[in-house]
């Protein structure tokens, strides 16, 4: 079923929650990713300087006190909230765990990572617009270099910047996305200093985090399909593993057999089998941010 073009309402029979070992956000990935290289906080020097100056730099739209932008639930945001926030899925069966993460629809074609970050920060009580959050990702809009067969030979580095045109299309290689280090950096700077992220997480670690009340942003493929994956070389020679169905969602609930998904593309919340989630997640080396 196409998750990008149709709203979903998945009715699920939920079983009792399988106990998971206790784990908090201090838990580190079970293993470091070897391909592509594990690049914690691979932010360029200029971007680090920008991060340090972030709170001191006037925003084009000065936010209210405390450096925070207008909350989504304020009267001045009512129309916008109605356009981007949607109804939650039906209540889960007894025995499941749910986390009240706000649900927002992405406002740009390829800003699923930004919309997922927006949800996680809102859950922590910090409201920022997607446009503002995206501006901190310093998009590298240089076009991809393709091979004769149409595959990508060279492009930007999603471990340091958003790659491509956010209004482009992945299947045309005009726009792609961004991986966990910059998103984690932004989250820590804008209200969630305890957030952790990386690759190589075990499913049990993610489920334990959910059981402890921590939303988790995960990198998967939209439509939960598994197309062919590939590798391109970034401008800085980093090896980048990619899927042209790259997508991120926020996990906001857990049962014995399923996870609840806040999906920013259709703006829908639904339950999906753990096995389906884990297969797609594996294509991105189990990349995640625990908030």
What does it look like?
The radius of gyration is 18 Å and the shape is globular. The chain is 21% helix and 17% strand. The longest helix is centred in the middle third of the chain and has 12 residues, at 112-123. The protein has one domain: Cathepsin B, Chain A. Strands 1, 4, 5, 8, 9, 10 and 11 form a seven-stranded antiparallel beta sheet that branches. Strands 2-3-6-7 form a four-stranded mixed beta sheet, with no helix packed on it. The protein has seven helices and eleven strands. It is an alpha+beta fold and 291 residues long.
Distance linking N and C termini: 29 Å
What is the count of helical runs?
A: 7
Got a strand count? 11
CATH architectural designation: Alpha-Beta Complex
Strand fraction band?
15-25%
Number of domains: 1
For the largest beta-sheet, the strand count, sense and barrel status come to: 7 strands, antiparallel
The succession of helices and strands, N to C, reads: HHEHHEEHEHEEEEEEHE
What overall geometry do the principal axes of the alpha carbons give?
globular
Low-confidence stretches: 1-88
Mean pLDDT: 78
Alpha-beta content class: alpha+beta
Q: Helical content, roughly?
A: 10-25%
CATH homologous superfamily caption = Cysteine proteinases
Compute the CA-based radius of gyration: 18 Å
CATH topology: Cathepsin B, Chain A
Indicate the CATH class: Alpha Beta
